[in-house]
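Posting here for the record, re: flavin-adenine dinucleotide.
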Amino acid sequence: MNIIVCIKRVPETTDADISIDKSGKDIDKSSLVFDLNEWDSYAIEEAILLKEKLGGTVTVISMGGEESNESLRKCLAMGADDAIRLTDPAFNGSDGFATARVLAEAVRKIPYDLILTGTQAEDDGYGQVGVVLAELLGIPHAAVVNRIEVQDKRLKVHRELEGGLEEVVEIDLPALLTIQTGINEPRYVSIMGIRKVAKKEIKSFGAPELNLKADEVGLSGSDIRLEKVFLPPVGEAAEILEGKPEEIALKVSEILRDKGGLS
Amino acid sequence: MDFELTQEQKDIQKAAREFIQGEYDKERILEWEQTHTFPRDIWKKACKLGFIGIHFPEEFGGQGYGVTENILIVEEFCRKDSGVGIALSLVDFSSELILRFGTDQQKKRYLIPVTKGEFISAGAYTEPDHGSDITLMSTTALKQGDSFLINGTKTFITNGCLADFFVVLCQTDPHAKPPYRGQCTILVDKGTKGLEATEITPKMGIRMTSTAELSFSDVRVPVSQLLGEENKGFYQVLEFFDESRIEIASQALGISQGAFDRALDYVKQRRQFGRRLVDFQITQHKLADMATKIETARLLTYKAAWNFDQKRIDPKLTSMAKMFAAKVAVEVADEAIQLLGGYGYITEYEVERFYRDAKITEIYEGTKEIQKNTIASALIGKLK
Amino acid sequence: MKEIVVIAEHRRGELRDITWEMLCKGRQLAESAGANLNAILLGKGVNHLAEALKPKVNKVFLIEDERLESYNSETYERALVRLITERKPWLTLIGHTATGMDFAPSLAARLKMPLATDCIGIEIEGETCSVIRQLYGGKINASVSFVKQGPYMATLRPGAFPVLEKDPLPGEIVPLPSPLAAETLARRFLQYVEAAVAEVDITQADILVAVGRGIKDAENIPLVKEFADSIGGVLACSRPVVDKKWLPKGCQVGTSGKTVRPKVYIAIGISGAFQHVAGMKGAGTVIAINKDPKAPIFNVAHYGIVADLFKIVPVIKDKIKGLRKS
Ligand SMILES: Cc1cc2nc3c(=O)[nH]c(=O)nc-3n(C[C@H](O)[C@H](O)[C@H](O)COP(=O)(O)OP(=O)(O)OC[C@H]3O[C@@H](n4cnc5c(N)ncnc54)[C@H](O)[C@@H]3O)c2cc1C
Ligand SMILES: Cc1cc2nc3c(=O)[nH]c(=O)nc-3n(C[C@H](O)[C@H](O)[C@H](O)COP(=O)(O)OP(=O)(O)OC[C@H]3O[C@@H](n4cnc5c(N)ncnc54)[C@H](O)[C@@H]3O)c2cc1C
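Prediction output follows.
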């Protein structure tokens, strides 16, 4: 089975102090650590597991600047066979739709049976790139997938719904799935993997190689535009409990008594 | 001049960081520390991923990289946790002697299992009466037919109670003049009759690493266990130190960085006198000093590693790196405790452990005084 | 006159909360823009749902077909492409749910309609529309505009829009013939399955102690477990904790987990991503413990404690134990 995985390198922000940059349209990323998007790490692991079971190849594709090589190399080291980076100044500012359009042109150049993407990205959270990509390629898709069983030329997949419910669907190959976290346990990168990567070349394509015109991609090819970012109104409701740990503990016990009926 | 790590080196650094972050678990580690337990499952995983013996050639189970790549891993491991980091970085201690001087058969027999997580190695040089000065050893290995008969005591031997084999520095010719021309390194397997290991405990730091006394009483090993040429043991060990001391420097470097990370995190949160500690200029200057020292230690350590990988032996540079990085580790960990105040003194906050673990880097594999002797003799030699 | 349509989401014979949320927001938008508010309902044997929708809209467009009995992106898309192409609504609203995430992007792409996903705010400004979305897991908000002229499509975040009582509209059910032909589908619905249930039912607890990724490792779970025990609470968690297999799936609170309404909910080391919040915002009192003062969880909590959980939780536990003994 030949699998394509679309991935993205994103800043890690959960534990970080974040502030808005000078443009007012993004956060200041200068001191942030970047890594493979969490959802994508499950997608690449799933692809490698399928390859290990069924044979075939795994190709990773990322649209992004040269720094995306870091995440592409990580995927190669985990076990992917090939990596392609899509880089062009014209791609800057692409929304989810424009991103999918760029990816689609790259995917068309490669034979595949299955495409995996993450369900969403940690940074912009569009949750749309994979499904749009399927539409542009004219192949069936399923979003928010947390289990895959291969049955000949079909897949049986579980889609995660709300409230602990799952939907089981059957889907013909070639198909695209957006992968949900928890579907597997992404592996560590091994030194053997890194050695393998060192010999690999990461191909890079720009807009001309993909036959994309400048107005089809980037800001001008996007349907939506980010005007400005701002901090969400913080602590509207929360009364911050201050003081020594013991004092805070006392307040918590009072709240538990008053609101939770704890004697 | 190029101060940039290669892409591959950066990838290795990142892989090591992600691995140790994934395995790091404070509660478990504090328990291991208290019970003097070696982090066995992390060691096994590290081997499986190729971190251990990364600097051995492929044919002997390694990954064919150099000291630089090895010390990048050691630094990351020690940065996340000084105790686990040191324990892991020493599981192959002295294996490099086999790499440099062993026969192909010895390399296959000992090195491959080390990389696979089947063997732990140890190097036994120090004796109760011979520490900094190993020019004469009381442990003797006398040739009798086709075997050596070993008698004596070695002390402070890292991995002593865990190791599967030992590289033992012995006096083979007690009459050699000077005596260090009559020394050999001999490979002794665990469980050989007459060999006994006793844990030396409790100790100040590196408590997840075993430190033991070895006693050899009529231990008989075949002459094929001799490492390299006869009577070259002393020289072999000095040559080995030239590599291994860079690894100790990187342990120290990682510990400094780890202590610094924790202190920085803390001073950004802790408030006194209505301000965060980090808002006081005194704190800022402390951070600046710590960071500068760490960066200097890093430059020296990386340079020593790079130089070694260029196939150049420069004991002076190695000793400078080891001495300086170790000193920085002790100073930075000390300052980290100070920045955390009373909390810094409490086990749960880790920096006191980093401090205790840092101290060993100023002692083993040549005390800082011995490093200075090495540096000075190189300098004076040049002046002549 | 402009038209705003809401694609009604339903499952197993029931309309889902997001539908009411969209209708309420849709009503407000329709009023401000002088537009009609209509709903589209696809399914089989869903007349009762159409009836329920009626007072909330001007028209309910109802397409019933066996092939629409269970949700399937392919049949949904086919039916909707036809309907939307014909009616050309100025704004189409879809839920940002597991269902909406599955069909809205491809539907918009096929219709070449601009789409803004996961909106937590949406307003009509003259001939265009602007939305608010969240970035970086809810740490930053962004105001986003559409570049081109309408029609537009937007998916709305569940739980982000309140449901308010409004005067009923003179709704009318408009049954439409199914545009679906007997063709083979590349994707087929098989069945629903319930994820494995936990031993303890977290939906029944009065006090829930929920732990998130901030707990760092499985080995630290006992710390919060003991705390929960000490206050007679039950342990729950956010999704990453389940993904990493530190706690069973049945403990998960949020859109893909359980919805809970305890008297007191204590969120420990949880950032407050909307998928989590959606499952616990019905709690009587929420106490959040997080070391990041900017964590979005503090926006939904009644009480906040900005501290390292490893330091504060043991103190609270001991204090309460002490108090309860005396
Ligand atoms: C935890 C631990 C693990 C160890 N692991 C190993 C191991 O795996 N293998 C091994 O062989 N050894 C190991 N050692 C031993 C270590 O290498 C020695 O302790 C160290 O070399 C110092 O020797 P000593 O303790 O005998 O001190 P001494 O040599 O007695 O030194 C005492 C003091 O005198 C100073 N001094 C000595 N000579 C001079 C001089 N010429 N000029 C100025 N000052 C001098 C020293 O610097 C030191 O400050 C370990 C030690 C410890 C504590
Ligand atoms: C389709 C879909 C469905 C989803 N369903 C759900 C769902 O049902 N339930 C759910 O929870 N999530 C769900 N998610 C995932 C959701 O988007 C978030 O990724 C998740 O909720 C984050 O969990 P968290 O808050 O535990 O972790 P993080 O966002 O990583 O937050 C960890 C928090 O811990 C704090 N912290 C770290 N260390 C400490 C410390 N020592 N002391 C105090 N605080 C500390 C940090 O400041 C941070 O705020 C879903 C996602 C998708 C795409």
